[in-house]
Amino acid sequence: MYPASVTALIRQAINSIKNQSQFVRYLIIIFGILFSQYANAGLSLSQAIIHFEDDGKRSEDVEVFNQGQETLYVRVEPSVIINAGTENEKREVYRDPKAAGLLVTPQRLVVAPGARKRLRFVRLDNPKSASIDKVFRVLVKPEVGEVKANQTAVKVIVAYEVLVLSQPDNAKPQLKSSFDFTKKTLTVSNLGNTNVLLQKGFQCPEGQSTEDADNQCVELVGKRIYSTNTWQVEVPFTTPVTYQISTGLDNSLVTFEPDKNTQIKTNQLDNTNSKNNN
């Protein structure tokens, strides 16, 4: 789950500071607010990602929890993501769920302290009519009134997003890989019609494995690669690279070989960690 950025709010407060002593005083206040808010955040969600597989269920619920001591007034704003994962990615808020393909209801919630409410996500489009994934991000954000005070004040609002992925019919990623040992990079392209999440990657020096007690294997960063997207990661060695990949709710291990252009599937994994990775 992704808390919404509070950078703009902090910048606004700092811009109103006129001298160094005020800066130090406000800095202490800001950090105090940040740490107290994140330690006692009132709003939380049961999950941060929903997969609507091509042959799976068409609705799913997300629970909204209020772990704070004040009533939360929550606004829900769904958006469709255009050109997901590219430099031209664009977020469009929509008002017609049928045309967009996703209904989220209700769009306003009142959650008492210690209570929980359900958000229902319903897929409305036909997988057979889609050529690639439909990608949505749904903002779940508490609403607050204006600060009524004579002095500058900072409000820290912790909001979350739910990533929704609706697969097309016969969803299948198709990964193509290539190594450039001069630049020390691995490039992975997704030529399939659905996204794939690469995580828990590693690469070991020649002759070593992660099972060796004194291994020098290196963990590699991961990435969700959408259909038609290409991604590049730095690799320190000239040896194979292994990742856990998740497609929908299915997990497996793959190894990218330096002398091959495609991945080699090595092992099926349990369907875990698929609901909370963006």
Task: Sum this structure up briefly.
The protein has 278 residues and is mainly β.
Describe it for me?
The chain folds into 2 domains: 7-166, Immunoglobulin-like, CATH 2.60.40.10; 175-269, Immunoglobulin-like. It has helices at 7-15, 20-39, 97-100, and strands at residues 43-45, 49-52, 59-66, 72-82, 90-93, 102-105, 108-111, 116-123, 134-142, 160-166, 175-180, 185-190, 196-203, 218-220, 223-225, 230-234, 241-247, 250-256, 263-269. Strands 2, 4, 5, 7, 9 and 10 form a 6-stranded mixed beta sheet that branches. A hairpin with a 6-residue loop joins β18 (250-256) and β19 (263-269). The N and C termini lie close together (8 Å). With 278 residues, it is mainly β. This is Molecular chaperone.
- Separate helix tally: 3
Kindly, what is the distance between the CA atoms of the first and last residues, rounded to a whole number of angstroms?
Answer: 8 Å
**Based on the structure, what is the oligomeric state of the protein chains?**
single chain
Number of strands: 19
Q: How much β-strand is present in the residues?
A: 35-45%
Proportion of helical residues? 10-25%
Keywords:
globular, six-stranded mixed beta sheet, mainly beta, 3 helices, Molecular chaperone, 2 domains, 12% helix, Ig-like_fold, Immunoglobulin-like, 278 residues
Strand and helix layout:
Layout lengths: L6 H9 L4 H20 L3 E3 L3 E4 L6 E8 L5 E11 L7 E4 L3 H4 L1 E4 L2 E4 L4 E8 L10 E9 L17 E7 L8 E6 L4 E6 L5 E8 L14 E3 L2 E3 L4 E5 L6 E7 L2 E7 L6 E7 L9
Parallel strand pairs: 2-10
Antiparallel strand pairs: 1-3, 3-8, 4-5, 4-7, 4-9, 6-8, 9-10, 11-12, 12-16, 13-14, 13-15, 13-17, 17-18, 18-19
